[in-house]
Design brief:
Blueprint (H helix, E strand, L loop, with lengths): L13 H39 L2 H35 L1 H34 L6 H7 L1 H22 L5 E3 L2 E3 L3 H5 L5 H29 L5 H35 L1 H8 L5 E2 L3 E3 L2 E3 L2 E3 L2 E3 L2 H7 L5 E2 L13 H32 L6 H27 L4 E3 L3 E2 H4 L6 H27 L7
Antiparallel strand pairs: 1-2, 3-8, 4-7, 5-6, 9-10
Length: 442
């Protein structure tokens, strides 16, 4: 560990600053998922229209374009807030390591402007551009959604496994941003895990909206088509996420063993460590959990006799809040498992009967799958971010060293909460209005 004498240890408002940042992430991350996946869904609908000549696909693509515009505008607000918070809430982090992650945020900014330009062209270009050119104008939107989020994920991967620099007199020197952000062993699993999650969240949320219409008795050919496209992508993503999650867990076990110990409540180093379902951590053990012998060692290292490092191998001040991390991790995995099983049911019915399931219980489950996928997404980010604590840069800079020394954070937190509430109400109102536009006006 490298000590940084910043004077921030005594900061009164560390908890408030973390809560303020967490609120912004919780609001922004679902919008990032739509930025990753929703443009692809829009282009699929338009491509199907060009391929088949079916007007339903064109109507769907045009209506979804309006939704894409509204959510992009909301993402601009939340993304701007996050950018300011990086400098205002964590000035020491920015001052020390800005040269490491600056390239990533520069590319993110370029991606944002590229996305804004082409969303405008795409939305305005209906009936004004030739069909093939209009479809092509949507491709940069997909690319920009990928590259923008890629940069943020690369910075987060570096924070979890810092490399590509040396720290001299409290400043990062000999910086190699490419190695730090893209050659980093933590980058690739976080990237794939988040992108697959983006398609799961977007797909299940959009499909859930049409599942609700099905339960209300409004399910014509338009609604069926609008459900099948996002559901198909969500099903594929949910099945793919299982091996990706296994990969991510093994990387965490190798690079951040204390985070793994917090996931599972491993108080003491064990050979052939048990997996515990449910329960809570207290006094160095999981209480009221359901043990599965040797399963943690098998999952983390693919060896039932592997040694799993315990929380007691580091001082108490270097451990994350175990029950917060454990509850978030189990929530993410539990919901992910349910979505996986739901996806298998869809595949089974589709292969055996060549249609969607028609049971009302399936559509009730699908209506719940949308909001549950968002809960799993946020729980996943709580797992990775709180699991890294007390470090903002793992084993290099503590979160308490990075935080601002300014007062007034609780006031800013309350103001920010009010802004996000107003934004949620505004976006909800816009989406309801868009859903009521007659089909002929699409």
């Amino acid at each position: 560990m490298i000590e940084l004498a910043t004077g921030a240890e005594a900061q009164r408002y560390l908890l408030e600053a973390r809560q303020m940042q967490a609120l912004s992430f919780a609001v922004h991350i679902p919008l990032v998922c739509f930025g990753i996946a929703f443009p692809t869904m829009v282009l699929i609908a338009e491509w199907l229209h060009m391929r088949t000549g079916d007007a339903v696909y064109r109507t769907l693509a045009r209506r979804w374009t309006r939704v894409m515009l509204a959510l992009f505008a909301a993402g601009v607000v939340t993304g701007t807030v996050l950018s300011f918070e990086m400098g205002l809430l964590w000035p020491q982090f920015t001052a020390v390591f800005g040269s490491v992650f600056g390239l990533g945020f520069a590319v993110e900014g370029f991606s944002f402007f590229l996305e804004a330009i082409f969303i405008g062209i795409y939305a305005y270009g209906w009936d004004r551009l030739p069909p093939r050119l209009h479809l092509a104008s949507g491709i940069p939107i997909v690319i920009a959604g990928v590259t923008g989020s890629l940069m943020v994920i690369s910075v987060n991967g570096w924070m979890n496994h810092p490399e590509g620099f040396r720290l001299v007199h409290g400043r990062a020197v000999d910086v190699d941003p490419v190695r730090a952000l893209f050659v980093n062993s933590n980058f690739w699993h976080e990237l794939v895990h988040m992108y697959v999650a983006g398609y799961m969240v977007t797909g299940f949320l959009v499909a859930a909206a049409y599942a609700v219409q099905r339960l209300r008795g409004s399910f014509g050919r338009y609604e069926r088509t609008a459900l099948v496209i996002p559901l198909s992508l969500a099903v594929v993503a949910s099945i793919v996420q299982a091996p990706v999650g296994d990969w991510a867990g093994r990387v965490v076990a190798e690079n951040q063993p204390i985070k793994l110990a917090a996931f599972e409540g491993v108080g003491h180093t064990e050979q052939g460590a048990d997996e515990h379902l449910l329960g809570y951590y207290e006094d160095g053990e999981v209480k009221y959990g359901i043990p599965i012998p040797d399963m943690l060692s098998l999952l983390a290292y693919h060896d039932p006799n592997a040694v799993v490092r315990g929380l007691d191998t580091v001082p108490a001040g270097d451990r994350p809040p175990v029950n917060v991390v454990r509850f978030a991790f189990q929530t993410m995995v539990g919901i992910g498992t349910l979505l996986f099983l739901l996806s298998l049911a869809v595949v089974y019915v589709r292969v055996r009967r060549r249609r969607l399931p028609d049971s009302p219980w399936f559509y009730r489950a699908l209506a719940l799958a949308g909001p549950l996928s968002v809960v799993a997404l946020i729980a996943g980010w709580v797992t990775t971010e709180v699991g890294r604590q007390p470090w903002v840069v793992y084993h290099v800079m503590r979160t308490s060293q990075a935080v601002t020394g300014a007062s007034g954070i609780p006031v800013g937190y309350g103001t920010l909460a009010a802004v996000y509430l107003a934004l949620a109400i505004g976006v909800g109102w816009v989406l309801v209005r868009l859903s009521r536009i007659p089909m002929e006006g699409a």
